[in-house]
Amino acid sequence: MKKNPVGTLIVLVAAVISILAIFLPFYTVELFGEKISASLFNADGVQIIAVVWLAFIVLALLFALAGKKALVLVFGLLSACGLFLSYFVNNNELKELGDLGSLVNKGIGNTLTLVGGICMLLAGIIYVATTKSE
Q1: Residue 120: how many CB atoms within 10 A of its CB?
Q2: Which pairs with CB-CB distance under 8 Å and at least 24 residues apart come from 83-87?
C-alpha cells in the first residue's frame, strides 16, 4: 500500500462488496413449505463462472496492493463486466419464467452483484486516476 493507500482502500472495499455478492443468496424460492436459496457460488452449473469472477476480484486487489495500476484497471473492468453479466443474465432468465417467476424472490446477493460491479468499475478508475506515475 505504499504507492496509493487511498486507492487501495477503495479497491479493498469494492472487492469485499463484490465477494459478498457472490456468496450471499441471489435467489430464494419458497414452495410447499420448503425454502431454498442459491448464491452465484452454489448454483448448479455456474460454480466455475463464480470462481473466475472471484479470481478477477482478488487479482484486482492484489495488483492494487502491489501498485500495478494498469492491471488493477484491467481486472477491475473484467470483474465488473462479469458481475454485470451475471446480474443481467440471471434477471432476464427470471423474467422468462413468467408466472413461475412470482415464486422466486431476489436476495441480497442479487442487489450486491450490481453494486459490486459498479464499485469494482469505479474503484479501478479511481485507483488509476489517483496513482502517481514514477
Answers
A1: 32
A2: 83/18, 83/21, 83/53, 83/113, 83/114, 83/116, 83/117, 83/120, 84/114, 84/117, 86/40, 86/46, 86/49, 86/53, 86/113, 87/113, 87/114, 87/117
Task: Please tell me the distance from the alpha carbon of residue 109 to that of residue 64, in angstroms, as a whole number.
Answer: 25
Query: What SS3 class is residue 91?
Result: helix
9-54 pLDDT, tens per residue?
888 898 899 889 888 887 777 778 777 777 777 766 677 888 888 8
Query: Does residue 62 carry a pLDDT above 60?
Result: yes
Does pTM surpass 0.85? no
As a whole number of angstroms, the distance between CA 8 and CA 108 comes to 25
